[in-house]
Design goal:
It is a single chain. By secondary structure, this protein is of the alpha/beta class. The chain has one domain: Glutaredoxin (3-Layer(aba) Sandwich), CATH 3.40.30. Helix content is 35%, strand content 23%. The chain contains five helices and eight strands. It has a six-stranded mixed sheet with strand order 2-6-5-4-7-8. A two-stranded antiparallel ribbon has the order 1-3. Helix 3 links the parallel strand 5 and strand 6. The longest helix is centred in the first third of the chain and has 16 residues.
Length: 174
């Protein structure tokens, strides 16, 4: 009986941290030793996930290409940047690669994709605070008010890509 109670507490505790569709996630700030913006190291605050429909890619550097098909589909849509944005948060703690090598690659990406905001999460803070998948590629879509509209960890299939694009399109027009 004690084992069952213990397992229940673990599962219940994890579910309290998990982000929930339709809710605004707990505020997370990445700064100092925990990370920040790739371009200049300044702090990033999750309260900025509003005012536009935003797609967040939370990615282990070793899984950077897992959802490339979705990224390409978003790019093809050429959404109005006044109403749509994207954020790529890199889970630096999830990779065996040296941080300086990842940093150089991110700086190149930031120049290639200037409309995407690149952020480093040095200690898997978002994994711990929001309960997203570690060592993976998570896709999160936020409304203009900051509510979570969509979340998927792992590779999106064609049906999920279509669903995610539809969510973005519908919410941009609101």
């Amino acid at each position: 009986m004690r084992v069952v109670s213990f397992l229940f507490l673990i599962v219940f505790g994890l579910s309290l941290k998990a982000i929930t569709i339709g809710e605004i996630p707990k505020n997370v700030v990445l700064s100092g030793d925990n990370g920040g913006l790739v371009k200049d190291g300044t702090q990033w605050d999750s309260t900025t996930l509003k005012d536009k429909v935003l797609v967040m890619f939370y990615v282990d550097p070793d899984e950077k290409d897992l959802n490339e098909a979705f990224a390409d589909a978003l790019k093809e849509k050429n959404f109005d940047r006044e109403k749509f944005g994207s954020v790529a948060v890199i889970n630096m703690a999830a990779s065996w690669k040296p941080n300086f090598a990842i940093q150089m690659a991110l700086e190149k990406k930031q120049k290639k994709f200037p409309h995407t905001l690149y952020v480093k999460d040095m200690n898997s803070v978002i994994v711990k605070e929001w309960g997203v998948a570690d060592d993976n590629s998570d896709i999160l879509i936020f409304s203009k008010t900051g509510e979570l509209l969509f979340h998927k960890d792992g590779k999106l299939n064609e049906e999920e890509i279509s669903k995610a694009l539809k969510i973005v399109e519908e919410n941009i027009s609101l």
